[in-house]
Structures are given as structure tokens and as C-alpha cells.
Amino acid sequence: MAVAGHEAGNTTGNGPLAGVRVVELAGIGPGPFAAMLLADLGADVVRVDRPGGAGLAVNPAYDVTNRNKRSVVIDLKAEDGPAAVLGLVERADVLIEGYRPGVAERLGVGPDACHARNPRLVYGRMTGWGQDGPLAQRAGHDIAYIAVTGALGMIGNPDEPPAVPANLVGDYAGGSLYLVVGVLAALHHARATGTGQVVDAAIVDGTSHLTAMIHGMVAAGGWQDRRGANLLDGGCPFYGTYETADGGYMAVGALEQQFYDEFTTLLGIADEAPARKDLARWGELREAVAARFRTRTRAQWTEVFQDSDACVAPVLSLREAPHHPHLAARATFTEFGGITQPAPAPRFSATPGTVHSGPALPGAHTAEVARDWDLPDLTDAVTKEA
User: Fold this and answer.
1) Which of 100, 119, 229, 262 is surrounded by the fewest CB atoms within 10 Å?
2) Residue 145 near residue 128, CB atoms below 8 Å
3) Residue from 63, 93, 171, 372 carrying the catalytic annotation
């Protein structure tokens, strides 16, 4: 019989990870996002929610990072809680957890306990500071992790405090994406050898890794270790943002000479702009560019540059982005269950990912997970804990 919201047997997407089973121990931020990415790629992700939910969580009905998943509620502090999770682990390929180091072990679901039940398991650990080091046991959030890596200090104007890039650089780029890369690499190894392993994905490690090119430029003398003084950090007048007549902004990235020439021509300053390689006159060039952009609206400048190679684009808001003609043509955003959200990425020619279910409501899928994963005791364990 079909369960509400799911057709019998339709438990995963059709992406390249179809058939891969993932257990996600519920948390916030980068762990859920990493599990969503695996689910978008077709994995059967079962999220183990805790009674009462997690701190800082959004309304479960709108938490897009829990799309394409299924949820059971298990109290790991209850007598039968760890056994219920280990039952899932025995049938899984991957487990993801985001506790502080040692917490999963104290709850009875650490790597040793899990590998005793399933030696092939890939055990993914998502933390900010990592599993060891002086700060491993300290609390933290994205902003602190990216602060110590040097990444935060790179962003913003030189005469202002560093700009906070939401939680995209640390949690998701340095955290979730590195966890997913690690999990997939370890899964490949496990399938080749029959042996699982632990993946220690620390946001400080991943974010530091993201700065590899910049460190090379610093070593070569091509990057000054301060904000707003370099080619890619807003210091360059032809790589930055400019306000328009209506209070909007345009983004300029005309780095190469041929793109820069087209940019200055379409902007209308080709004859008056100082030489772009004259760093002493970059301030003058910036003022000329800024003054010209303030003469028209964002929409007008968008029309001027839209069919060019000048590398100029309007700065859109989150609500505006899905309506951009290029993103709309590519269906970069999709709507599911009344929520506009980014479509799965990247894209695959033979095994495309899809959004096939909305945010998993806590505990909504216990019966079907018990059935599909052949765990009849799961329903009993959850019922007793409830």
C-alpha cells in the first residue's frame, strides 16, 4: 500500500547515487545540507530526528535542506535508541553525524560501534574545528571557523570590518561540500575493498583548502595580505560592484584585456579611462566607473551589457534570482510543494537528480523505512520511546 506522499518503492531519486543508503543523525547547518546533496543525487537518506527537534532549526515544513529525505524520530538517550540506530547502520552505506567529538561514542553510535555492525560503512563526521586539536571541544559557528583560516579577513573594504558572507563560505563550501567529496571517495574505496572508514570533515580544514590559490599568489608576491588591495577582493576597479541611479548594483569582472576593452566601450568611458595597468591611478579609474554607473538604472545597464563579453551582471536579490532569464531558461530554480528552491546540482546526462519530495517532517516515515529497510523492530522501538 502506498504511504501518503510516497509511492511504494519510490524511496529514492533517479540520480547517480540511487541505491545508496545514508543514515543522517539530525543536526543543523552543514550536516543536513551535505545529506540533502546526497539525497538530491538519488541516495535514500533516512534522517534520525531527535525528540523535540534541533536548536536553531527552521519550521520543518520549510526546511529545504531536508528535501528528498525520510525521517524517523529516535531518542538516542533512551534504552533502545542506540540499538535502533545501529539497526539502520547495519543496512546503510553511509552515516553522517555532526556532534562534538566524543558525543556519538557516548551515545553508543560512534565509529567503533557502527563498524562492528557494518565494516563497510563510511562514517562521515562534520564539525567546525575537527576531531582533534586544542579547540576540538569548543563550540563555534561558521563565522569563527572562517575567521581563523584567513578567509574572513580577505572579504570587505579595507577601511571597514570584514564583511560576513552569510554562512556560505564555512558551513557549506568548506564544510558540506568537503564532507560530500570525502564520503563519495570513501564510498568508492569501501566498494572496492570492502572496508569502510571515518571521514573527518572540519570546516577549518575545508575553508583553508579553498584559499589554496591565494596562498600561492601570496608566496609569489602577487597578493597583498590585506583587504581591498588585490585583483579579486574588490581592490581592482574592474572587478567589483557599483551602485546605479536607482540604488541597485552592477557586478563587474572585466579582468582580461579584451573584456575590459568591451566594458569601457559600452560603459562610455573608453576615451577618458586611465590605463588599467597603472595601479597608481586605480582610484581615479574607480571614480570614473562609479560616476558613469550612477547615470542609469540597474535595468538600463543590464540591457546595455546583456549581449556582451564585458563580464558585467546585475546584483540580484534571492527573490529576484529565479526570474533571471538565463537561470529561468536552465531551470536553475524549481518549485516544489509551494517552495521556490534551487534545483539539484550538478547535472548528469544519464542519471539526472530531481526534487521528488518536500522537507521530511520529523518521524513521518517510520513505517515505510521499517518496511523498505527490513527493520520491523524499528516501529516498535520508536513507539516505546515515544
Assistant:
1) 119
2) yes
3) 171
Model confidence band, residue 57 (pLDDT cutoffs 50, 70, 90): low
DSSP H helical ranges for the chain: 30-40, 81-90, 103-106, 111-117, 142-149, 177-193, 203-210, 212-219, 257-267, 282-293, 298-305, 325-330, 366-372, 376-385
pLDDT band, residue 214 (cuts 50/70/90): very high
Q: Tell me the Cα Rg of the chain.
A: 24
Catalytic site residue from 6, 115, 141, 324: 141
Q: Is 49 known to be catalytic?
A: no
Helix axes 376-385, 81-90, angle to 10 degrees: 160
Question: What's the average model confidence in pLDDT over 36-40?
Answer: 98
How far, in Å, CA of 135 to CA of 306, rounded? 48
> Residue 3: which pLDDT band, with cuts at 50, 70 and 90?
very low
DSSP one-letter string for 200-247: EEEHHHHHHHHTHHHHHHHHTT-S-SSTT-STTTT-STTEEEEE-TTS
Does the annotation mark 171 as catalytic?
A: yes
**Distance between CA atoms of residues 305 and 68, nearest Å:** 38
* pTM beyond 0.85: yes
